[in-house]
Write a structure and sequence with these properties.
This protein is mostly helical. The chain has four helices and no strands.
Amino acid sequence: MAKRKPKQADPEHSGSVESEQKPSLPLPSTSPSTNAIVTGLLVSGAGQILLDQLEKRMIVAAYDPDKARDLVDGRTIVKSLALYGASKLATRSVPGLAIVAGGLLVKSLYDRGRTVQRERREKDSGEQ
């Protein structure tokens, strides 16, 4: 096998500090990969906080504030992990989105059916 020849250094950019571009923002680390991780965590955290606030405001519009607080803050870890998994599945592929959307449709229809049955039972027990 032939040996590779080392690349020739460009005489214009031969180690001069002036030729390197410096970031315009002060970054927490000199490593680009560390900066990418920090940025990802910040964006993800800010997005999660925004989603939590939006969810609370939407629930408050439908229920009283105490009930809404119980609905959002009363989640178990299992429910939180299930929601996280479903959101990851839905955002990574079209079939995943179809599965999650289908599951939500089935759950909505099930809830509506249960409500109708409960109202019928209450109506029947009220007439007798």
